[in-house]
Amino acid sequence: MRRAAFFVDLDHFKNINDSYGHQVGDTVLAGIAQLIKEHLRSTDKAVRWGGEEFILIYLETNIDELLTLAEELRTKIDGHRFKTVGHVTVSCGVTLYKNGDTIQSIIKRADNALYMAKSTGRNRIESL
Fold it and tell me: N or C: which end of the chain has fewer CB within 10 A?
């Protein structure tokens, strides 16, 4: 079992703030945070990384379990209906710790996977 980093980024979040205002945007972020919290196992950690991004750290996982957990969370958010805005999706980038990784290198790889998910259609998961 290995450690993993998992980025979650709301798709088109700027449109929510522009269309409904920042207070509604903040409510959506709080809702996403709650869905993430409900999803975490006792060994996992999650923090808001900035803006509309969250990073989840899984301390004990493998690639198959990581991808399953990521898809479960993505599906949970995709199926949730938020008051005022309704449907919201997220893109996810995941990666496992590799020998020699630093905090910076694993975060960069997860962020690169997230960028791939965003650039290939959103509401999806990519792994590196």
Answer: N
Residue 118: both structure tokens together = 């965003």
Catalytic residue among 38, 52, 53, 65: 52
CA–CA dist 74, 93 (Å, integer): 11
Q: Could you tell me which of 36, 4, 17, 34 has the C-alpha nearest to residue 106?
A: 4
* Mean local confidence (pLDDT), 97-103: 93
User: Is-contact 10 117, C-beta < 8 A?
Assistant: no
Quote the mean pLDDT of the chain.
95
The answer to whether residues 49 and 82 touch, using CB atoms and an 8 Å cutoff, is no
Half-sphere exposure of 51 (CA within 13 A, CB side): 12
Per-residue model confidence (pLDDT) at position 1: 66
126 a catalytic residue:
no
pLDDT at residue number 60: 87
